[in-house]
Amino acid sequence: MNDASSRQRGSTWPRRHEHLVALCAALLTAALCLLPFGASRAAAAAVSSTVRISLVGNEPAVSASGQAVIVSGTLTNTGSAAIDDPVVHLSINGERLLDTRSAANDWMSGKLDLPVQQVATGTTDPLAPGATTSFAVTIPGNKLKFSYGLASLPLAVTVTDGRTSSASGVRGTARSTLHQQNATVDSPLRLTVVIPLTLPADPDLFGPSGATRAAAWERAVGPDSRVQRLLDAFAGMPVAFAVDPELLDPPAAADDNVPSATPTPSGSSTSGTQQSDGSTSAQSTEGTEDATTAPNPTSTAAATSGDATTTGTASGTATGGSTGDESRTTTSESPSSSSSSSTAAPNSPAGRIATAVDGLAQRLAALDDPGSVWWLPADDPDLVALDAAGRDGQALLRRDLTRALPDTATDISTTRVVIPAGDTPRSIVTAATKRLAGDGREAIAVLPDRMLPAASAAATTATHRASGTSGVLTYDERLSRLFGASSTSPGTQTGRLLTQSLAIYQQSPGSSRSLAILAPRTGGANPTDLAARVGALETATWLQLRSGAQTVKSLRSAPRATLLTQPRKGTPYPTVPATAITVTELRDLDRSRRQLAALQSVLVGGDEVLPQRTQALDIIGSTRWRGSVARLASVADRDDAAVSAMLGKLSIRSSTINFFADSGDISVTIANDLNRPVHGVLLNLRPRKVFIQVTDAEKSVDVDAGAHAATRFHIKAVGAGTVPVDALLHAPDGAPLGPPGAPSQLKINVHPTSGWIMWVLGVLAALVLVIGLWRAVRRGPRAASEATPADEPTPEETIVDAGPGAPQPTDDEGTGDR
């Protein structure tokens, strides 16, 4: 039987017998109501509910006429009394089919009350309060002989304590469905199942380097992750995977320093300070310690005992010694650049992340049809929230949409896809797909069927060609909700899914139509249950599952459709929590990006490491953060603090300088605690008072990694006093560097020599004159001594005999003879 329907084969009674059929049906219904428990109405059994029934499923999910079916599940005693003899009763209605979506919903919700006939029973072990046991009851094939081409039959499961038929013995009931197919289908519904693979809202994924971040990535993409379990569960099934490229391209860690450069072998270096000009610099001291500049400075130079270390980078750039009027100080404890190999040690945090990511890439590449991988925009951006957030949000959205795929992704597939979260205007969708396809590749949009006019949606066609896209795939929201929802009775959920899909097919059995269902990004049913539902759908002859590659191919020849400006009213699926991102966080992101751009312009090898760090800041715009306000705030705050700390590693040492001169040089020290050298950093001095003038207020400075550099500035004293001087670091384009907040400040105690030294000398001269006069007056005039005649002989009594050995005076000396 082609284009099968729910009618029984051979049912061609003329209309004149319809009244007889109705009468017989009424009599049969009345008779069933009078029969014992085995032929009761399903709703009438729900008198007591102390047993929770969870159905695992039917085996087979879709059977043929006369084929036995095994119904399995579990029973849980939720009451306070034991159930000594649990009996499971299975009953069906073979007359009333659930051939419309409303009938199926009414039956499952209890609104539709139908008579059912018992077809099988089974017993289980006694159930103590709180205990759970499993059951499996087989419905014999002779109880399932129906001549329908396709059928969804109502199935009731009832649990009693013993085989009593009274309502008082009923402990629990559940409703499900049983499906049969007894004919071939020429025009099945072509079904596309889309499974998103994205990162969870885990802040540890985007934290600083270390074991915590590595463990988070192993949980997200490792062998036991939800992503890998989804790939395992759907192995060999024709589904489409919508994958966030960030799964294969982890963002840079939120570290407060840059990666070290790969060292270049060089000669040894020693500590020292080199000054290239002949002027003497005023010594600066940290804290309150003073230093003095002589009034008439003389030229001194401290020679280094060796050449400055040349630090190589990955790009081959080297930083040499100081030039011009710059002096460089390299301390012996400064760390040298460490090697960063392309492959990290397997047991290191970086190695663990690389292993997990590589394993996922290999899994995707090994799929039976790698073309079934569709790549979401980078970081799966929240289209609606970012577009509504103004300039900063729209800039972030453009960056995510235009970011190229990593090579590991393009080696697998090049198809791009947009799956907006929540109701999204057409203008945002088309703008996103255009940007995503900017490299000439296909970019499709997966949208709810409410984006189409009601008449188009009723036609049950999921593939469309729409302006501004490479194709639009519209998914059935009600069917997707059934497919993705978590349930304590997965078998019941699978039955509902089959019933609804068959009802859609029955709307127009001979038409060529298509259908799509979408799983939620996170939450919902576990991977095993989702795969079991797809497996059941795959066995239904009224459905034909299409892979992602087949769906993309069908979009190229799909009928044209015009999307609505706004989706029609309805309940969005998947359920969309409130957006988490704020305007303040986006504004802080923009500031951090500017700060890193400034640092990149002066960092040796900055073009190699800082673009990745800057790009990692954009993670705050992802859809994953919806409903996770606190988690997003922690990520944004941590990124902001890390960037501020990174810039703070370029700093100026605050100092107090005593300046005893009319003019001279002062020394300002810059510290670079980054793991890489910087070059071309501009240092600017701005006095806050007019007591000094800086001859050349801006100098360019180069500083090695982990080193200090002292730069001299020539100043002139204009007046005496304490002068606060702001010391500012900035990039060549004027962007500020250094710690955020107030600038570093020097204090210069200015004592010019041109005035006070002459006063001091004059006072000293006056004091010397006064003291000399005072001493002269106090001593008075000196008395004159009497002169002795030169020709008068010396009295004899004044001559002293010196002894016989003494020389005797001669006559010529006036002694005479004795």
From TrEMBL:
Q: Does this UniProt record's set of keywords contain Transmembrane helix?
A: yes
Q: Where is the composition biased (Low complexity)?
A: 259-317, 329-350
Q: What stretches pass through the bilayer?
A: 756-774
Q: Which UniProt keywords apply?
A: Membrane, Transmembrane, Transmembrane helix
Alphabetized Pfam families for the sequence = DUF6049
Q: Where is this region: Disordered?
A: 248-351, 781-818
Family annotation (InterPro entries): DUF6049
Entry superkingdom:
Bacteria
Name of the protein in its database record: Uncharacterized protein
Species annotation: Flexivirga oryzae
